[in-house]
UniProtKB/TrEMBL annotation:
<dbReference type="GO" id="GO:0031543">
    <property type="term" value="F:peptidyl-proline dioxygenase activity"/>
</dbReference>
<keyword id="KW-0408">Iron</keyword>
<dbReference type="InterPro" id="IPR051559">
    <property type="entry name" value="HIF_prolyl_hydroxylases"/>
</dbReference>
<dbReference type="GO" id="GO:0071456">
    <property type="term" value="P:cellular response to hypoxia"/>
</dbReference>
<keyword id="KW-0223">Dioxygenase</keyword>
<keyword id="KW-0847">Vitamin C</keyword>
<dbReference type="GO" id="GO:0008198">
    <property type="term" value="F:ferrous iron binding"/>
</dbReference>
<dbReference type="InterPro" id="IPR005123">
    <property type="entry name" value="Oxoglu/Fe-dep_dioxygenase_dom"/>
</dbReference>
<dbReference type="Pfam" id="PF13640">
    <property type="entry name" value="2OG-FeII_Oxy_3"/>
</dbReference>
<feature type="domain" description="Fe2OG dioxygenase">
    <location>
        <begin position="99"/>
        <end position="198"/>
    </location>
</feature>
<dbReference type="InterPro" id="IPR044862">
    <property type="entry name" value="Pro_4_hyd_alph_FE2OG_OXY"/>
</dbReference>
<dbReference type="GO" id="GO:0031418">
    <property type="term" value="F:L-ascorbic acid binding"/>
</dbReference>
<keyword id="KW-0479">Metal-binding</keyword>
<keyword id="KW-0560">Oxidoreductase</keyword>
<protein>
    <submittedName>
        <fullName>Proline hydroxylase</fullName>
    </submittedName>
</protein>
<dbReference type="InterPro" id="IPR006620">
    <property type="entry name" value="Pro_4_hyd_alph"/>
</dbReference>
Length: 210
């Protein structure tokens, strides 16, 4: 048994799902007031969001045929961001305790998908090329239609899961293992995408975020 978080949900379901299938979808995982505060932040700071980029380091590109959502990285400046990061820190520690993965930090950004915005099928990390180990997605609102997250198996085309975004749902999956896509949003869709990372830095190579 894991200790229930003082902030949110018990992590047992998350850890069991990850052990059994490599991904987990938990509804109402985060406190409603926190989700509402984070959603409000997306709305009030919308003009600070920028077209999302794909790739890493010098390969970083803006490719709007692959994704056209807008993102803003957390800077920890609001109490809502700090509260969210505190919960993710608990998740990080729980995953490390169960799976001995040595996850050492977490990075995340807000994302806004306006009507019609999408993110085509992709992997968040490629074996040996990224320090992203687990992806998290947390939804901040509940659009009426569209914007489903589709998770695919490592091999094969039949989706494992079709998830309609719902405020408070938290999804966690192994970044290298599951291709996934965001279907075109039917209306504004607010979320936080984040990654637990392992440390690839060494004495002569510093591995930064992204
Ligand atoms: O918002 C989602 O449901 C998934 C987003 C995603 O795949 C990403 O940002 O890498
Ligand atoms: Fe992704």
């Amino acid at each position: 048994m894991t200790t229930p978080s003082q902030f949110s949900f018990s992590f047992d379901t998350l850890l069991d799902d990850i052990a059994e299938q490599g991904y987990s979808v938990i509804e109402n995982a985060l406190p409603q007031e926190l989700i509402a505060d984070l959603e409000k932040q997306c709305e009030t700071q919308a003009e600070q969001f920028q077209l999302a980029k794909i790739g890493r380091h010098q390969d970083l590109q803006q490719v709007s045929t692959i994704r056209n959502d807008k993102t803003k990285w957390f800077d920890g400046a609001t109490t809502a961001e700090q509260a969210y990061l505190a919960i993710m820190e608990e998740v990080r520690v729980a995953i490390n305790q169960s799976f001995f993965l040595g996850l050492f930090d977490y990075e995340c950004h807000f994302a806004i998908y306006q009507q019609g915005d999408f993110y085509k099928k992709h992997l968040d990390a490629f074996k040996g090329k990224s320090n992203r180990v687990f992806t998290t997605v947390c939804y901040l609102n509940t659009p009426q239609v569209g914007g489903e997250l589709v998770i695919y198996p490592e091999k094969g085309k039949l989706p494992l899961a079709h998830i309609s975004p719902k405020a408070g749902t938290l999804i966690c999956f192994e970044s290298e293992r599951f291709p996934h896509e965001v279907l075109p949003a039917g209306s504004a869709r607010y979320s936080i995408a984040g990654w637990f990372r392992k440390n690839n830095s060494s004495a002569n190579f510093v591995d930064p975020s992204q």
